[in-house]
């Protein structure tokens, strides 16, 4: 049996950053993930997707972000059990937990952090007759490799961040980009909406709203789409159709662990430490819910930090922890005293 301090379920960005924060507190982590490589959705679905809301990065590729997080946590030598799904959590009499996977691997830890993102997921597909026949033949639900669309005509459907961000990115890759949305208003970031409108003015994006795609044309491969706009129907030529309507999340085995679930997410106490209704089990990142919850990577990083502080206090009752800034102490200086920290700050100022 594998022994650790924190068992982290989910190797997405939030789970990986939790390893870093735990490492600063001299706590060991072991990560379990059903995918064959770390990164979660970012690696599996959007490896080339640009991300704009990571502090210090005007834009960073999803795959690059995961690579950087892996480099950041390498010094703390976390354990990984990949390509295995966590199926059960059993609390022991001594307060520890044993997490068992579908392949029989068991990991025992003093706390469990569920960082499973949206859980298992599948794309929300538009209701278009015979769309399955064109999947992988011009219909793509994810953009894994933007070069696939180099110098091609593409049509993106959707009104959220993914549809906006990929329209912006692919405007410099594809020969022709058309964005179709059933409303005039978009659900994505205002800055992205402004960029799309600006690209439309520059004739780099064709914007069709309010409209819906109702049919696909082509002999075994997508060659065109049928679009309905304000009661009128017309066709446009395209090489690829990319419907980006989000994902249908499924919690999978998580739903059977006795946790309090609300709208397919785990309820947590955000006033303190993102602990669930079971003491010692936490939920961080997109998998959790609480009043005012925002599903942003940035928020997951914040939740991971407070979770680690809480686990430290549970593992070290009565021991006073002095927070020191890594800009002063470095990642190896977290066992010193307040006096040493103050000296370091003064020295840095001088």
From TrEMBL:
Q: What is its EC number?
A: 1.18.1.2
Q: Could you state a single Gene Ontology molecular function term?
A: flavin adenine dinucleotide binding
Quote the protein name from its UniProt record. Ferredoxin--NADP reductase
Q: How does it assemble?
A: Homodimer.
Enumerate the cofactors the protein uses.
FAD
Q: What class of enzyme is it?
A: oxidoreductase
Annotated FAD/NAD(P)-binding domain ranges read 5-291
| Record: residues binding FAD | 14, 33, 41, 46, 86, 121, 286, 327
Q: Name the UniProt key words of this record, in alphabetical order.
A: FAD, Flavoprotein, NADP, Oxidoreductase
Query: Which family would the database say this protein is a member of?
Result: Belongs to the ferredoxin--NADP reductase type 2 family.
- Reaction(s) catalysed (UniProt annotation): 2 reduced [2Fe-2S]-[ferredoxin] + NADP(+) + H(+) = 2 oxidized [2Fe-2S]-[ferredoxin] + NADPH
User: What does the note under cofactor report?
Assistant: Binds 1 FAD per subunit.
Q: Which domain of life is it from?
A: Bacteria
User: Which Gene3D superfamilies does the entry link to?
Assistant: FAD/NAD(P)-binding domain
| InterPro entries reported in the protein's UniProt record | FAD/NAD-bd_sf, FAD/NAD-binding_dom, Fd--NADP_Rdtase_type_2, Ferredoxin-NADP_redctase_2
């Amino acid at each position: 049996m594998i022994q650790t301090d924190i068992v982290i379920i989910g190797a997405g960005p939030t789970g990986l950053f939790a390893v870093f924060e735990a490492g600063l507190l001299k706590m060991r982590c072991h990560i379990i993930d059903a995918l064959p490589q770390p990164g979660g959705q970012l690696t599996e679905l959007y490896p080339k997707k640009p991300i704009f809301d990571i502090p210090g990065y005007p834009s960073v590729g999803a795959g690059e972000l995961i690579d950087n997080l892996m480099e950041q946590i390498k010094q703390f030598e976390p354990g990984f059990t990949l390509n295995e799904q966590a199926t059960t959590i059993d609390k022991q009499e001594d307060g520890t937990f044993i997490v068992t996977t579908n392949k029989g691997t068991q990991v025992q830890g003093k706390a469990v952090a569920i960082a499973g993102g949206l859980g298992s997921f599948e794309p929300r597909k538009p209701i278009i007759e015979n769309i399955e026949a064109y999947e992988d033949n011009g219909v793509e639900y994810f953009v894994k490799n933007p070069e696939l669309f180099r110098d091609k005509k593409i049509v993106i459907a959707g009104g959220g961040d993914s549809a906006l961000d990929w329209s912006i990115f692919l405007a410099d890759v594809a020969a022709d980009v058309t964005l179709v949305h059933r409303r005039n208003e978009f659900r994505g970031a205002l800055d992205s909406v402004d960029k799309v409108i600006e690209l439309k003015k520059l004739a780099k994006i064709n914007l069709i709203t309010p409209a819906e795609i109702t049919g696909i044309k082509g002999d075994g491969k997508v060659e065109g789409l049928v679009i309905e706009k304000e009661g009128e129907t017309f066709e446009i030529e395209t090489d690829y159709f990319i419907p980006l309507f989000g994902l249908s999340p499924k919690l999978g085995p998580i739903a059977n662990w006795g946790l309090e679930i609300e709208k397919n997410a785990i309820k947590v106490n955000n006033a303190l430490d993102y602990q669930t209704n079971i003491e010692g089990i936490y939920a961080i990142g997109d998998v959790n819910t609480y009043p005012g919850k925002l599903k942003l990577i940035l928020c997951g990083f914040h939740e991971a930090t407070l979770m680690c502080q809480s686990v430290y206090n549970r593992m070290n009752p009565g021991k006073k922890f002095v927070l020191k800034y890594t800009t002063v102490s470095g990642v190896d200086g977290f066992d010193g005293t307040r006096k040493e920290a103050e000296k370091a700050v003064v020295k840095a100022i001088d």
